[in-house]
Amino acid sequence: MKRPDQGLYLAYILLALTDILLLNVAPEFRFFSKPWLMPVLLLAYRREVAVHDLFSRKIMLALFLSWLGDLALMFGGGIMFIAGLSFFLAAHIAYIAYFRSIKSNKTSFLKRRPVMLLAVFVFVFELLYVLWPGLGSMAGPVSVYAIVIGTMLAFAGWQYGKLSDATARLFMAGALCFVVSDSLLAIARFRFPFSHSGTLVMFTYCLAQLLIIKGSVAHLRERSMPGLSTEHT
Q: What's the number of domains the chain is made of?
């Protein structure tokens, strides 16, 4: 592993804060902030990860797909919203593939307590229940998306017990922030528009991506150190 490029991570944080500020005071200028978020984070991750293996490529693919989703959602029409939804759906699938690829000689906490997974399924059901009256023709796509983000959250939570607590917490916190961000976006768009929804969506989204990326860095660092690694092939 290489030393982190703190300048790039700082640039990402500043870009995120700038984008949130522009969202509230001059949204027409967000073309100078939002399109740069994922490329800067991807570059920071790429520079910190020394070996570009299948794990890191899945993360970079997820960031690239998220960038395409960001661009699509910057345009207002329904078709572009569907495109953005599709890109983010694919990004979540890439994250699921990453989590699913993690092997360990330790047993996941959720494997020992599978009943905890019910909380994820209950949340997905309740979210769709709240959204359903306003979904109309979007009921199918949004239902698929909700199931996928719930699956991503479950796979992130599955890392508890398999990886170090610190790494698992980063993954779980990032996945939770992503679910919160997507849920708030859906509620504001399809059911109950509320003030500052955009700010909350962007804050949790940017934080989610950063936490998952730092979780991956920690995971790959552990994986490269035989004394710390709990993984097997």
A: 1
Host domain of residue 21: 6-223
Length of the chain in terms of residues written:
233
Q: Is residue 229 part of a domain?
A: no
Between the CA of residue 120 and those of 20, 76, 123, 148, what are the distances in Å?
A: 29, 31, 5, 11
Q: Is residue 228 part of a domain?
A: no
Indicate whether 231 belongs to any domain: no
Contacts of 213 (CB under 8 A, 6+ apart): 41, 44, 45, 59, 63, 174
CA distances from 198 to 13, 22, 100, 193, 215 (A): 17, 11, 31, 10, 26
Confirm whether 203 is domain-assigned: yes
Mean pLDDT of the chain: 90
Q: What is the Cα 126 distance to its own chain's centre?
A: 21
Burial profile 172-184: b = 16 or more Cβ within 10 angstroms, e = fewer: bbbbbbbbbbbbb
Measured distance CA(184)–CA(101) in Å, rounded = 29
Q: How many CB atoms lie within 10 A of CB 24?
A: 12
The β-bridge partners of 160 are: 163
Q: Cα separation of 62 and 98, whole Å?
A: 10
Residue 2, pLDDT score: 62
pTM above 0.85, yes or no: yes
**pLDDT exceeds cutoff 80 at 127:** yes
* Closest to 98 (Cα-Cα) out of 15, 158, 177, 24: 158
Residues 6+ apart with CB under 8 A from 6: none
DSSP 51: S
